[in-house]
Amino acid sequence: MAITVHNIVKNFGDFVALDDVSLDVAGGSLTALLGPSGSGKSTLLRVIAGLEEPDSGQVIISGEDATSKPAQKRNVGFVFQHYAAFKHLSVRDNVAFGLSIRKRPKSDIRARVDDLLHLVQLDGLAERYPSQLSGGQRQRMALARALAVEPKVLLLDEPFGALDANVRKDLRRWLRRLHDEMHVTTVFVTHDQEEAMEVADTIVIMNRGAIEQIGRPRELYEQPGNEFVMGFLGPVNRLGDVLVRPHDIEILLGPNGVTTEATVKRVTYLGFEVRVEMLLPNGRRLWAQATREAAEGVQPGRVVHVRAKAAKAIDTNGTGPLVPICEDGHDDPAADNPWWDRRVVMEVHHQG
Amino acid sequence: MLAKFGLRFVALGYLALILMLPVAIVFVRTFQHGLAPVVNAIQQPDFLHALYLTVLITLIVVPCNTVFGVITALVLVRREFPGKSLLSALIDLPFAVSPIVVGLSLVLLYGRQGWFGGWLTAHGIQIIFALPSMVLATIFVSLPFVVREVVPVLHEIGDEQEQAASTLGASSWQTFWRITLPSIRAGVAYGVILTTARALGEFGAVSVVSGKIAGQTATLTIQVEQSYQQFDLTGAYTASLVLAVLALLTVFAMNLFKPKELD
Question: Measured between alpha carbons, how far is B234 from B253 in angstroms, rounded to an integer?
Answer without folding.
Answer: 29
